[in-house]
Amino acid sequence: MQFTIQKSVEILERTPQLLEIMLGGLSEEWIENNEGPETWSPYDVVGHLIHGEKTDWIPRMEIILSSKADKSFEPFDRFAQFDEGAPKTLTQLLNEFKALRKQNLNRLRAQNITQNDLLQEGRHPAFGPVTLSQLLATWVAHDLNHIGQISRVMAKQYEQEVGPWKAYLGILKA
Amino acid sequence: MQFTIQKSVEILERTPQLLEIMLGGLSEEWIENNEGPETWSPYDVVGHLIHGEKTDWIPRMEIILSSKADKSFEPFDRFAQFDEGAPKTLTQLLNEFKALRKQNLNRLRAQNITQNDLLQEGRHPAFGPVTLSQLLATWVAHDLNHIGQISRVMAKQYEQEVGPWKAYLGILKA
Q1: Is the CB of residue B43 less than 8 Å from the CB of residue B90?
Q2: What's the CA gap between A8 and A105, in Å, rounded?
Q3: Mind telling me which Pfam families this protein's record contains (chains A, B) (predicted)?
Q4: What pLDDT digit, counting tens, does each position of B20-67 carry?
Q5: Which of A152-156, B76-80, B135-139 has the weakest average pLDDT?
């Protein structure tokens, strides 16, 4: 499937509401349990998505579309959500993510990105040159990656409880 | 995490709305593309979930809780959604799933299931004896399995478009 801004925004704009439906009002165990040491709970994932809105996708888009000579990205801290100071409730995090995503989609729309813009490049700290369309496609796939992760983390809470059906549930083997 | 009816219903009751937010109004490519030959699109997955509501979870619960001597389950047809006659729109499928899930949760609540009921057994065609709590835990994990699958199928539509970021997106390797 070919990248377009429109098909990308279709996914990006619904993620905040999807996470609210998926997680809002659940028992704490569903929200706070993870897959074992060094793994993330659904709560942690929402914190990670917030950090991406603040420092990754749109700031990097603006670097690519700027007139700067050096279009190097800042490295992204995948663990920043664990250093955020006073702990917030899940509801606070979901609201913060919703507000940031809305602002960021407005910043995206305000650019009126052309086909030529999509080919412009920035410099990723590990990969070197990457295009704007790769960055924006990754924003979309990254949302879906973490929605899939949340589904898996939650499913694993019932790994023992399903008994022999574990054999039929691919998500428990991932 | 230990199985309870309450924690299970928390997940089961939100799945129809989650699928509406996740899929309603998307471009056809997001809904109809799959992962390659013999794999399912998001549209196919919703059809499969409908078939489960009709023939699997609650009908099997009622077999377990019946006074029949033979508590063997009917085999479940994992491909029934491809034999359903006139094709339906995604909106029709989502509405049908929502209505069936609501009815089935009412049937679940009407049983006033006790701790003793949860230990009652039926006979699975492949596994032999399984308990009611295993069946109901599987209903929950099965929803999450297919939400994860839909996320993965959609993410894979951008597998090429993300360029080098593929290396960081676990969902594209699943």
Answers
A1: yes
A2: 11
A3: DinB_2
A4: 999 999 999 999 999 999 999 999 999 999 999 999 999 999 999 999
A5: B76-80
Give the Cβ contact number of residue B155 at 10 Å: 25
Both tokens assigned to B161: 């478009």
B135's enclosing H/E stretch is: helix B132-156
- B21 and chain A in contact, CB less than 8 A: yes
Tens digit of each residue's pLDDT (9 = 90 or more) over B92-103: 999 999 999 999
B27 interfacial to chain A (CB closer than 8 Å): yes
Counting beta carbons within 10 angstroms of the beta carbon of residue A106, is it exposed (0 to 12), middle (13 to 18) or buried (19 or more)?
Answer: exposed
The rounded distance, in Å, linking the Cα atoms of A161 and A166 is 9
d(CA A118, CA A113): 7
Measure the CA angle with vertex B80, ends B31 and B172; round to 5°.
40
Q: Measured in whole angstroms, how far is the alpha carbon of residue B122 from the centre of its chain? A: 20
- Catalogue all structural domains in chain B, each as residue range(s) with its CATH number: 5-172 (1.20.120.450)
Cβ-based neighbours of B35, under 8 Å, separated by 6 or more: B152, B153, B156
Q: What's the rounded Cα separation, in Å, for the pair A166 and B134?
A: 10
Averaged pLDDT of chain B: 95
Chain-centre distance for alpha carbon A3? 18
From chain B, the residues in CB contact with A144 under 8 A are 151-152, 154-155, 171
Over residues B59-79, the mean pLDDT reads 92
pLDDT at A84 over 70: no
| Contact criterion met (CB < 8 Å) for B157 and A1 | yes
Q: What is the DSSP letter of B85?
A: S
